[in-house]
Amino acid sequence: MYNRNQAEQQICDFLRSTDQVLLLTGTHQQEKHPLALRAVLSEYPAPATVLFRTNHASHYRDFLRPVLPLQKKPRPGVPIRVHGAYELFVDTMNRASWGSTPRAIDVAVLYPIDSYKADTGTESVQDVQFRGAKKTFLITWTDNRDIAWTNHFAPVHVVYDAEAERPDYHERVRELSKAPLADETLTRLPKYAQSIPHDHLIRVRCSRCRSTRWARMNMPYPGEAVLHSAKTGVYWARCLKCGMTADEHTKWYR
Ligand SMILES: [Zn+2]
């Protein structure tokens, strides 16, 4: 079990080590980045400049609120002063925002890295390292993406699961985590399936097309174990080519 105390300890160890990159995964979707930020904003030797890079400007406030009481909406280029010891800056994964944040930083926290592809993620990490980041945190929201690109940076891997605090929630998120569509699959999706939300996509044997087709599920893909053991009629899917409803959910796959 990977609980809060363990994860916190490992993050503090990382901050005192010579390691540069930490990958933080686990089922506690909204609690991982506050854990990392709190540790940075108390344990990292002050004074220090910290960059929080997230996927969209509309998320600055929500993502930072668990850690900092914010009077104003954070903006790139405007430092948030913390305990008189740290300056926290925000920007987004969109390069256009990078010009507003300092060229020299000490720590970078990138969250959620689910929004990155291999090339954009690599570019973003290289950018913060170019700014001199001595510690870089790469933090996932849900672990259902291919984040193999992070291996390139040889991160220390820390896991923070919700299992001990919220077992039901932990199980639900774990099921989600079993449901990724591999990058490979995504790049090979035929045109007729491309506009469908990925979590609803499934491959079925279509009796009318007499072929394997992509189909749209009535519910998000719950992971193979749940799908294959479900009662008949709980999940159904419509062939995206001909509209035929497919049965035999025990044979569907992604
Ligand atoms: Zn069909």
List the helices and strands and how they pair.
Layout: H1 4-16, E1 21-25, H2 32-43, E2 48-54, H3 60-64, E3 80-82, E4 86-92, E5 107-110, H4 118-130, E6 135-139, E7 156-159, H5 167-177, H6 183-187, E8 201-206, E9 211-217, H7 224-229, E10 237-239, E11 245-246
Parallel strand pairs: 1-6, 1-7, 2-4, 2-5, 5-6
Antiparallel strand pairs: 3-4, 8-9, 9-10, 10-11
Bound molecules: zinc ion.
Question: What does this protein look like?
Answer:
The chain is α/β, with parallel strands linked by helices. The chain is built from 7 helices and 11 strands. Helix 1 packs across helix 2. The protein starts with a helix and ends in an 8-residue tail after the last strand. 33% of the residues are buried. Zinc ion binds at residues 206, 208-209, 213, 239, 241-242, 244.
How much of the polypeptide forms β-strand, as a percent range?
15-25%
Q: What integer is the average pLDDT?
A: 91
| Low-confidence regions | none
What top-tier CATH class of the largest domain fits best? Alpha Beta
Total beta-strand segments: 11
CATH fold type of the largest domain: Rossmann fold
SSE order, one letter for each helix or strand: HEHEHEEEHEEHHEEHEE
Domains, number? 2
CATH architecture of the largest domain: 3-Layer(aba) Sandwich
Spell out which ligands are present: zinc ion
* Largest sheet: number of strands, sense, barrel closure: 7 strands, mixed
Q: What is the straight-line distance between the termini?
A: 29 Å
Helix content: 25-40%
Task: Count helical runs.
Answer: 7
Give the overall shape, derived from the CA principal axes. Answer: elongated
Given the helix and strand composition, which structural class is it? Answer: alpha/beta
